[in-house]
From TrEMBL:
Zn(2+) 2 binds at residues 515, 518, 533, 536. It comes from Fictibacillus aquaticus. The gene is priA. Zn(2+) 1 binds at residues 506, 509, 546, 549. The lineage of its organism: Bacteria, Bacillati, Bacillota, Bacilli, Bacillales. It holds the Pfam family PriA_C. InterPro entries: DEAD/DEAH_box_helicase_dom, Helicase_ATP-bd, Helicase_C-like, P-loop_NTPase, PriA, PriA_3primeBD, PriA_3primeBD_sf, PriA_C. Residues 541-709 form the Helicase C-terminal domain. This is Replication restart protein PriA. Component of the replication restart primosome. Its EC number is 5.6.2.4. One of its GO terms (cellular component) is primosome complex.
Amino acid sequence: MIAQVVVDLPTGLVNKSFDYKVPEHLESSVLPGMRVIVPFGPRKLQGFVTGFSSSSEHNKLKPIEDVLDPVPVLTDELLKLGQWLSEETLSFYITVFQAMLPAAMKASYSKSFVLTGEPPDDFPLSPLFSGRDEVSLEEVMREFPESLALFQQQARAGVLDVIYKVKDQAVKKKKKFVRLSLTAAEAEAMALKLPERSVKQKEVLLSLCTLPEQELQTLLNSTGSSAQSVASLEKKGAVCIDTREVYRDPFAGRTEKKTQPLELTELQEKAIQPLLHAMEKNEHETVLLHGVTGSGKTEIYLQSIDKALNSGKESIVLVPEIALTPQMVTRFKGRFGSKVAVLHSGLSKGEKYDEWRKILRKEVSVVVGARSAVFAPFQNLGLIIIDEEHETSYKQDDNPRYHARDVAIWRGNHHSCPVVLGSATPSLESYARAQKGVYTLSSLTKRVMMQELPPVEVADMREELHEGNRSMFSRLLMEEMQIRLQNNEQIVLFLNRRGYSSFVLCRDCGYAVTCPHCDISLTYHKKGHQLKCHYCGHEEMMPETCPSCTGQHIRFFGTGTQKVEEELARLLPEARVIRMDVDTTSRKGSHEKLLTAFGKGEADILLGTQMIAKGLDFPKVTLVGVLAADSMLHLPDFRAAEKTFQLLTQVAGRAGRDELPGKVVIQSYDCGHYSIEFASRHDFLSFYNREMHTRRSMQYPPYYFLSLITVSHPDLVKTIEVSEKAAEYLKTKLNSSSIILGPVASPIARLKDRYRYQVMVKYKNEPGLRLYIREILNHFQREITQTQLQIAVDMNVQSIM
Ligand code: ADP
Ligand code: ZN
């Protein structure tokens, strides 16, 4: 029996499976989709079994050393999907397989130096080994890096051996449980007979009489006894202790109030039909659910999932990481209780692993999660939902560069089940497909209770400045805020930036402080008076004088949430403000705490960044203010207008969701821009038509496909040379109607001390493009493996920034 194994070595040279012998004792336990440990050269690597055969073209195969999983962790479907995704995204199989599984299942490797026998008398490393025969490479690097050469020399001389180890990080959590082995009456009798000094044992026994099985630690805490008392009872045969695996429960102690399906409105009833039809007929269909904010899309999701559950099928719900708020989770847990697993980045590695295993073991039938939850190992899928389908976070910007929407549709096809894409502001791609009939369009044009969408007023900040208002609040917004404060209503203020301010600039010479490793401005952080690079983490002190002209007038520019907070304290001292940004929400649970406090009315103003734009539903919010609506418009990104429109629409949707009517004030320096104008009129269709026109004339998606090759290397000349060769090669291969742009420096021209150049390909139909890019990658394979050269390929670019 021979197994094909994809090994954990992400390089082009080994992007295939290798043959291994299955030793007899493993023959009955190894199946495709299981993780194994195999020898590879001098090392040991983790790998995935992808199939079996009875013969191999190689003789002298090495045997599989160990099988890590009792059941396959990649189902047959996921193995197939992995193959497809690897070809689509030009990523390695191993990278794709790993992306499908929780991070805890990735192996960690270590290397050690081991004495081969009795070391010679003059062995120079004796003090470092002192009484042991193994030292890990990690320890060498940490404690005595200067001796590394000596270790290697001794290894070559044969005094030391180098051994490689593979450790599975997927650790199951275990707990001890105590169970009474006697009847309650026997235990009570025994307790009474125990001598005076065994008072703790007595308490333990009596406690077990009322609850015969308890978790050890809980029992010890409640009785104030020690493990020893319980051990004595075990010896006497009164109790037994066993160790069991338990799930880490990120939602421990929380039970959501059970909710019942709401009676659908007429509009909802109509909008859910295409979905229910597809489910009844077991047909794959992609439904674009275009519903304004507050139109009841989530209730449609919930009732469709219910339908899937009733026919014994499973559902996947994807929500953008940023919208995966406790409010959202509560709605799903409230309806489906323990049938729901939740996967998001706030969980620890172990917690994610446990939630994922509930799916594998069929203990849940619904998963709510961020992007990677699209790989949930369900085997009987009835429905996949992507909420806020336009969100850019559904595209992974690292290998494998996949879009969750494409994966969802592949799986929908495989399982013959519908995929729902929901949004108030669909991506241009999806809406265009719906118009062409590739997707089924289903619209919800009104809010559930027919509440009006809030009126939006635009405040022209240039005008304000002209008339002498130098504050960051327009007079209009200020007045509206004062009214809300008087009426005891709530306000949401949205700012599309983080930190205290964005960048530091010298007013005399115009010098902007940039990162020494990246071509990016450093960001000022008030805490510690420091400048930070948000790309590589570089930190330095805020300079006193300009490093370029030594002038005194070096200042930070732009407005951040901290600065707005200070300004609010000055102008509206009576207002209670909750600030939500990366700085105030970095600790686990703080996000939820702040939102709960706001929901309970403990503050008048919720001030925040992107993270407050979505999914929040607070009935007392009657005013939404957007401070710098155009801050995104000037990014060199063909989606800048689309993203601005989407964000403004989302934020505006937070106002007037209940009985109190809401209002929105958008402040901008570029009021005439169509994305702001259409957003202020809640007019998606006009925005869509206008933006499609721009995309067509600029030859951007969805009219053209956009692929991007980014070459990077510490040496600028090398970077340019390789990117030029790549562009040249593509020019000889592609249709004359395709457009090859570049090579040019990337928008971030240097990152972590590497220069970056890019070649962009715009095309309508290039069936051979993947093959040609593969050839380029193969051509540079040796340099990529052996030197610092990197070539990143994104076959379907979402954002050029
Ligand atoms: P969306 O997801 O489209 O923004 P939601 O699903 O959050 O909209 O619905 C907005 C509000 O309307 C929520 O408070 C929800 O509970 C309520 N709602 C939704 N459907 C109904 C219904 N059929 N009857 C009564 N209330 C509803
Ligand atoms: Zn940097």
